[in-house]
């Protein structure tokens, strides 16, 4: 579940291993390009953390963030 905190939408994802996490990141990267909206994220082994915020709107959560979050949820 996405959480809104510190002017971001945040979610952590856990996978079975690094390969699954990396494959997920690749799918998210393609979505981000389609949406022209790119996340801040980290990956450590099987965990991916994503923060979404709209920089050109003063680093706040906007509809752009919510749409990308929904698209990310749809690929799970």
UniProtKB/TrEMBL annotation:
<dbReference type="InterPro" id="IPR001533">
    <property type="entry name" value="Pterin_deHydtase"/>
</dbReference>
<dbReference type="GO" id="GO:0006729">
    <property type="term" value="P:tetrahydrobiopterin biosynthetic process"/>
</dbReference>
<comment type="similarity">
    <text>Belongs to the pterin-4-alpha-carbinolamine dehydratase family.</text>
</comment>
<dbReference type="InterPro" id="IPR036428">
    <property type="entry name" value="PCD_sf"/>
</dbReference>
<keyword id="KW-0456">Lyase</keyword>
<dbReference type="GO" id="GO:0008124">
    <property type="term" value="F:4-alpha-hydroxytetrahydrobiopterin dehydratase activity"/>
</dbReference>
<dbReference type="Pfam" id="PF01329">
    <property type="entry name" value="Pterin_4a"/>
</dbReference>
<protein>
    <recommendedName>
        <fullName>4a-hydroxytetrahydrobiopterin dehydratase</fullName>
        <ecNumber>4.2.1.96</ecNumber>
    </recommendedName>
</protein>
């Amino acid at each position: 579940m996405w959480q809104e905190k510190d002017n971001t939408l945040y979610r952590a994802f856990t996978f079975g291993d690094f390969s699954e996490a990396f494959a997920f990141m690749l799918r998210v990267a393609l979505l981000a390009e389609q949406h022209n909206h790119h996340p801040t994220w980290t990956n450590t082994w099987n965990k991916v953390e994503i923060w979404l915020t709209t920089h050109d709107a003063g680093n706040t959560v906007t509809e752009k963030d919510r749409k990308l979050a929904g698209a990310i949820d749809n690929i799970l």
